[in-house]
Amino acid sequence: MEMESQQESQKRRGMSKEELISEQTGSLGCIGWFIFIISGVFTLCLFPITIWFCLKIVQEYERAVIFRLGRITDRKAKGPGIFFVLPCTDSIVKVDLRTVSFDIPPQEILTKDSVTVSVDGVVYFRVNDPIASVANVTNADFATRLLAQTTLRNVLGTKNLAEVLSDREGIAHSMQSSLDDATDNWGIKVERVEIKDVKLPVQLQRAMAAEAEAAREARAKVIAAEGEMNASRALKEASLVIAESPSALQLRYLQTLNTIAAEKNSTIIFPLPMDIIAHFMRK
């Protein structure tokens, strides 16, 4: 008996989703057909009254899963439009196919480098298999919400703080892939996952701000030092050019006097002409 049960379970694992649904939606049996016929006769006898219970309307964005004596009637859901059911033997469950979005509540998560952060997000999903969403899970919407919270914790637990702050798109794609694989048997298609906000502790924010300020100051000092070095090199090259041509120094002298006169100063100091100073420098 155990061997037969194992073979049957292995056979079920190898079956596709459509074959499993087909097995679940088997024939009603003799008693089922008898009850179905009695229900049909009863509906025909009370037709003016039962017509209001037999006609069902499904909107364009909805599908109806029909259970007849506890079994799903067809391999696919009904709708959209109007269709006929028996009030005594048939029951319907309407499934909304529109995209649903919900917020993931803020989760206190310990990252890989032992930093506690609060992260929240938003998930967009829809039902792509109405029969699986009704037959395989009690409440597909609630189950997807809970699974999104645990998936967010599991994914962020493998990341360090720098990756959480800089690689939000990669984290969102990883969450979407994990959620989509987990909810495939529920007939749910996860379309998009987004990380909304990452909140850090106040002390860590201050430490990161101090670190960023120190890095900016160090970078500013390096840039200032490079500027002074380039300026000194330019002055050295200019002095070599002036040393080769004394007239260039005289021209520079006149240029400086012109600049000083343009600034409307009340006092102008005239240095000694370079030709007089050159006479004493030769001696």
UniProtKB/TrEMBL annotation:
Query: Origin, by domain of life?
Result: Eukaryota
Ranges where the Band domain occurs: 53-212
| Residues spanning the membrane | 31-55
Q: Which InterPro entries match?
A: Band-7_stomatin-like, Band_7, Band_7/SPFH_dom_sf, Band_7/stomatin-like_CS, Stomatin_HflK_fam
This protein's GO CC annotations: plasma membrane
Compartments where found? Membrane
Instruction: Extract the SMART domains matched here.
Output: PHB
Per its UniProt record, what PROSITE patterns does this chain match? BAND_7
Under Gene3D superfamilies, the record lists:
6.10.250.2090, Band 7 domain (3.30.479.30)
The family assignment reads: Belongs to the band 7/mec-2 family.
Listed name of the protein: Band 7 domain-containing protein
Report the source organism: Monopterus albus (Swamp eel)
